[in-house]
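Box 4.2: Ligand-aware structure prediction
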Amino acid sequence: MANSASTPRTKVRLKTERPRLHKVILVNDDYTPREFVVSVLKGEFRMNEDQAYRVMMTAHRRGACVVAVYARDVAETKATRGTEAGRSKGYPLLFTTEPEE
Ligand code: TYC
């Protein structure tokens, strides 16, 4: 009791920090067809053909590409849906998320 009375375990935050945004990252693989990656980017991330093609080709050439940034739950939902779209066709297409600095 003496301990908990003298050492509070929770810190009082004086400032409210804005929650960090999270990046959705498209990861390259050798099997998913290019057109399928483009269609997932268009359907899940509201990109036009041109934007989707550029992002797909960047991931293809460099190994991965940041698709967009969102609040954490939105980023995770979109990454999961994109990955599952590939999985439903038997492709190893992968989207991951990570917090912005
Ligand atoms: N590398 C794939 C191919 O040549 C296309 C591809 C691009 C797959 C980007 C995944 O994230 C990716 N068919």
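In the box above, the bound molecule is L-tyrosinamide. Residues 72-87 form the longest helix (16 residues).
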